[in-house]
Amino acid sequence: MSTLAPSLAPATTVAVLGAGRLGGVLARALRAAGIEVHGPIRRTESIPDVDIALLCVPDSAIADAALAARPHARLIGHVSGATPLDDVDFSLHPLQTFTGAETPDVFRGIGCAVDGRTEDALAAAIALAEMLGARPVRVEDSGRAGYHASASLASNLVLAVLDAAEQVANASGIPASDARMLLAPLVRRTVENWVDAGAATALTGPIARGDEATVDRQRAAIAETQPELLALFDELCDRTRVIAASRDDVAVREEEHRA
Q1: Count of CB atoms situated within 10 Å of the CB of 240
Q2: What is each CA distance from 83 to 29, 90, 229, in whole angstroms?
Q3: Could you count the other beta carbons within 10 Å of the beta carbon of residue 110?
Q4: First and final CA of the chain: distance in angstroms?
Q5: Which of 137, 208, 211, 214 qualifies as a FRET site for 74, CA 20 to 30 Å off?
Q6: Who contacts 155 (Cβ-Cβ below 8 Å, separation ≥6)?
Q7: What global pTM score does this model have?
Q8: Dist. CA 219–CA 233, nearest whole Å
């Protein structure tokens, strides 16, 4: 094995363990960045001697995979967002959703949570993220679960809300594919407004206007056609009222300051 420099010299070797969605994309992207990559390596295949073993396996398999890789690598990292560093030297979690078919440039400009048990391990994680074109942000073990919950809220759980919107539109007579095309520009603009100014400023609609009569009509329509979504609708409305109230509080304070 070669001596690993903090900048990850071209001679650095990496074994990607795990042939799932992220493993394949990471292997292609690291090769495109000039790293000598072995893999993605499947569970039944042997592990070569390398500088870094990067574990792209389910969280429940990290401990066993790290144990198997330890004799073959100087540093071992995982790509889990929630798992602590108990069995590895560093973590590298690209904050993105993957299908497995992405090109290497998928990492450019995205956030990447990193951490390391030593300065050398942290430097390796940062260097890998930067070689991928990502923006490394250190997230230590104490904040890892909360960070990953935030990512789930922003991605996986958003899909639950979007699926609910599609179902309600479909129940109103709009075919599912048409509903997605109809709602997509609204979703994109909402996200863009949130990125620019935050939820309170981006918020529009009947709750922001205090139009509870319209919310009641919406609720009645969902109760009639999709009653299983009623609890979700009510919870989201309650949370939206909190956001609207926070905006109103700010407006009142600004008006008092001007007075």
Answers
A1: 17
A2: 23, 11, 32
A3: 14
A4: 70
A5: 137
A6: 97
A7: 0.80
A8: 8
Return d(Cα 7, Cα 116) in angstroms, integer.
15
Residue 52 parent element (H or E):
strand 50-55
Q: How far apart are CA 227 and CA 219, in angstroms?
A: 9
Distances (CA, A) of 35 to 9, 16, 24, 30, 131: 8, 12, 14, 6, 9
Nearest to 111 by CA among 138, 140, 84, 144: 138
Residue count of the chain, please give it.
Answer: 259
Summarised one tens digit per residue, pLDDT across range 182-217 is 999 999 999 999 999 999 999 999 999 999 999 999
Residue 99, pLDDT score: 86
CA angle 179, 180, 184 (to 5 degrees): 120
